[in-house]
Amino acid sequence: MIWRDRANRYAFFCWLLLTAAGITLLRVTSVSPWILLAGFSFLSLLIFFYVAGRRAIQLSRLSSLVREVLAGQDHFDFGRYREGELYVLAADLQKIAGAYRERTSALKRDKAYLYDAISDISHQLKTPITSLYVISDVLRKPLSEKEKSIFEQQLNQQIERLDWLVKSLLTLAKLDADAVIFNKQKTTLGQIARRAFAPLAIKADLEDLTVSIRGDLHATLEVDENWLVEALGNVIKNALEHAEPKSEIVIECQDLPMSKLIFVSNTGTVEKEELTHVFDRFYKRPAADNDSIGIGLSITKAVVQAQGGRVEAVSEDGRTIFSLRFPK
Question: How far apart are CA 200 and CA 239, in angstroms?
């Protein structure tokens, strides 16, 4: 290890030369051995202090670079050492500094994300809470039984909406923190599709929409069925909200050589710019319902990705298609 450093090699060769010169002088001259020993020792000390001083300067430079990195300096260069132990040390410090910079950048992004998330959550909670205050004040006034019944119904709706919002936000928080434990078991694509559509069947009837479930319904998939049913249900709900009146929504399952997919398609197109944001948290399309919060598709994306899949959306030829794709 010591021979990696060029200064150490030079010092050793100088010492060999001094030794050889001292032995030669003892043989060819009558100089006192003690004088030669004193001169040899003095020159050896000079070489030692030169090497030690050079090493101290290099270590001081490395120390200064480390302090600059810790102070937040983005640009650093540990690559000025060409060989030796300091080269190995500098290379390791370069790796550590790079990892430290990446970690610091990630923390800054997380901080900005947390700030935005708190702002969004605060905004989303503000509306139902304000509505609860207003309805509560109205209910304190003398009202007829009919008026009282109407406001009580509105109160219950706001409470349900607030409860759903809080649960959805907690779900997203758990998914973001990787705190969800998925219980993966084999199930069929058809079973997932039917379970996801079942709670929305009444809504489809009220909207006079036809929903077809078809394709490779018996194809198996190893996932957490309950979570995937919720994720697919959000996609179907989105399709019901944006489909054209009296149109057909198709839920199609496909078993392909490299992957297994569930498609949900509805009539109507979405602008390309909107498609880039449909999975963003709290994003609401202009045509969305007033009660829409813009969180369902975000949950879908998080659930699918957490189970090794990916979700995509395209809009062409008069139809909008959402796909949940899982590799085999």
Answer: 11
Q: Which two tokens stand for residue 137?
A: 């004040």
Rounded alpha-carbon distances, angstroms, from residue 17 to 39, 44, 62, 282 = 13, 11, 32, 78
Low-confidence ranges of the chain (pLDDT < 50): 1
**Helix/strand/coil for 126:** helix
Question: φ, ψ for residue 326 (rounded to 5)?
Answer: -125, 125
114 shares a domain with 209? no
Write the CATH number for 117.
1.10.287
What pTM was computed for the model?
Answer: 0.61
Give the Cα separation of 88 and 110 in Å (integer). 33
Helix extents (H) in 211-325: 225-242, 272-275, 296-306
DSSP letter assigned to residue 246: T
Coil, helix or strand at residue 4: helix
Pair of tokens at residue 95? 């790796």
Q: Which of 147, 176, 205 is the last residue of a domain?
A: 176
CATH for 201: 3.30.565.10
**Residue 138 falls within a domain, yes or no?**
yes
Taking 3-state DSSP, the helix, strand and coil percentages for the chain, each rounded to the nearest 5, stand at 60, 15, 25
245: which strand partners?
none
User: Helices 85-139 & 145-176, crossing angle to 10 degrees?
Assistant: 170
Instruction: List, for residues 11-63, the tens digit of each pLDDT value.
Output: 666 666 767 666 676 666 666 666 666 666 666 667 676 766 777 777 777 77
